[in-house]
Design goal:
Layout lengths: L20 H17 L4 H11 L2 H10 L3 E5 L5 E6 L5 E4 L9 H9 L7 H12 L3 E4 L2 H9 L5
Parallel strand pairs: 1-4
Antiparallel strand pairs: 1-2, 2-3
Helix pairs in contact: 1-2, 1-5, 3-5
The chain binds zinc ion (ZN).
Zinc ion (ZN) binds next to helix 4 and helix 5.
GO cellular component, one term: Shu complex
Keywords: Metal-binding, Zinc, Zinc-finger
InterPro entries: Znf_SWIM (IPR007527)
């Protein structure tokens, strides 16, 4: 018996927040389990795949590689930098739910087919598992990051 992967990704409600309640709860459960056991149980992994599709696995890879860094500046700004598989650095903002990668632009913004890309998902997972690398930057550096003018 093969279970067909039906791709019914219709989301109800137009006034949804960045994440549906089911996703919020999933991250909460992951956080709780990871705090207690430093592992994500199989049922939660399956739920992750169910809610986020293939990008769940890619995001978990990014988490394993500790690819997520939280930059914070003295003035209290925060941005997340995720090193993608190709070594490219993506700056994501949870506060405005944005990632500059092509997948986010096409899948999330244009076609409204997904909730988020693997980078943003990786940020949420790293936050839930408390494995985000922390880095303090100056306000000046943060401005450069926010305006996308940071050097390589
Ligand atoms: Zn992305």
């Amino acid at each position: 018996m093969k279970s067909g992967s039906a791709r019914s990704k219709k989301l109800c409600g137009k006034m949804r927040t960045f994440l549906p309640a089911v996703a919020e709860q999933l991250f909460g459960d992951i956080q709780k389990n990871y705090e207690e056991t430093t592992q994500i149980p199989d049922d939660l992994l399956i739920a992750l795949k169910f809610v986020f599709g293939t990008c769940a696995l890619q995001a978990l890879d990014l988490v394993d590689q500790r690819s997520v860094t939280c930059l914070s500046s003295p003035s209290g700004r925060k941005a997340f930098q995720v090193t993608g598989g190709s070594g490219r650095l993506y700056t994501c903002f949870l506060s405005c739910h944005y990632c500059p990668c092509p997948a986010f632009t096409y899948t999330v913004l244009r076609r409204n087919q997904g909730l988020l890309c693997k980078h943003i998902l990786a940020v949420y997972l790293c936050q839930a598992m408390a494995v985000t690398q922390q880095e303090s930057v100056s306000d000046q550096q943060m401005s450069a990051v926010l305006s996308g003018t940071e050097g390589p």
